[in-house]
Amino acid sequence: MNALAKALFEAALESGVFGAGKDIKTRTIACDNVFSGAEPQTFAHLTLRLVAGRPLEVRQKLANDLLAVLEAHLPEVGTLTVLPIEIDQDVYAKRVL
């Protein structure tokens, strides 16, 4: 999972969508109880939170690029998904050292 998190970070950084690496965070969270209609009964889901305002084409390309990273690292996983969610910059608070 560490290699996957690093690969997703690097792909996001290389996309040119973000201003700097400090704007990107990746993490993995395991789910103990999972049920799915797909076989095998495994999944990986990426929630991609982006400050609002990027064109649909940019968001779609980034989602597809990150899905390709998931596919490369998790070829045996039954379901892979990427969900871009726009964040309202007016209510987003952030602190970075």
Query: Helical stretch count?
Result: 2
End-to-end gap:
26 Å
Shape: globular
Measured by DSSP, the beta-strand proportion falls in 15-25%
Which segments are poorly predicted (pLDDT under 50) over 5 or more consecutive residues? none
Mean pLDDT, to the nearest integer, reads 93
What does this protein structure show overall?
The structure is a single chain. This protein has 97 residues and is α+β, with helices and mostly antiparallel strands. Helix content is 32%, strand content 19%. It is built from 2 helices and 2 strands. The chain has helices at 2-14, 56-73; strands spanning 43-51, 79-87. Strands 1-2 form a two-stranded parallel ribbon. Helix 2 (56-73) links the parallel strand 1 (43-51) and strand 2. Helix 1 (2-14) runs antiparallel to helix 2 (56-73). The chain is globular. The model has no long low-confidence stretch (mean pLDDT 93).
Nutshell version of this structure?
The protein is built from two helices and two strands, in the order H-E-H-E. It has 97 residues and is an alpha+beta fold.
Task: From the structure above, extract its key features.
two-stranded parallel sheet, alpha+beta, globular, 32% helix, 97 residues, single chain, 2 strands
Q: In terms of topology, how is this protein built?
A:
Layout lengths: L1 H13 L28 E9 L4 H18 L5 E9 L10
Parallel strand pairs: 1-2
Helix pairs in contact: 1-2
